[in-house]
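pinned: reference chain
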Amino acid sequence: MKKGIYLLPSIFTSLSLFCAFYSITASIKGSILHACWAIIIAGVFDGLDGRIARLTGSTSRFGEEYDSLVDMISFGIAPAILVYNWALQPYGRWGWLVAFLYIICTALRLARFNVQSESRENKYFQGLPTPGAAGMIATTVIIFNNLGMPVIKNVTIPLITCLLALLMVSNIRYYSIKDFNFRKRRPFSTLLAFVFLLILFLGEPEIFLFITGVIYTISGPVGFFIMKRKRRILKQELKETNNYNNISKL
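pinned: its structure tokens
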């Protein structure tokens, strides 16, 4: 600390915290859509601070701890308050218990992430990342609002909140895009794919973000079951091979 801190990544982390605080105040005032977009923008700043720190060689222990504390507010407390004020409040005690489950799972997810920082794979996350879970809540609220779907005593809302909370603390692996190298040469088709996705985003940003969030959220469980099936098939093939070798020896 005597040497000072890196200013640029800390500014982006602070902007994420500002968006989280704005989201909380907007949720309390009833400006639900403003609260949703504030969480989404907080996720953008969260992605930028880490990438800027790595690109400029300004990573530090202070930055990691500051980022983790801000993530707890941006992607734990702010989404929980949002979903509680939006749809869980009519459930009474069970409503705030579901919201608290989401908060505590966020805290546990971040604590596990910090402990495993030295040994984790850069390519994968263990459990659904907290920005992904928060973004899923925010985009779900936006979609429900745009479609005019009723949320009073809608059982899907607490179920989705609980599912996202449990996915965060699960051992299911999720692909990480934080270390995607934009400076590396890529196939021409990659550029076309980015342009196509940009057009879809500009055309229907709410639907695009929601579908992207759903795909990413289910990618973990789908990949888990596919890998489990492959391992079962491989084990069966090895067993049959061993049986065949034993018979051939006889």
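why pinned: Residues 113 and 119 are 10 Å apart (CA to CA). The chain has a mean pLDDT of 87.
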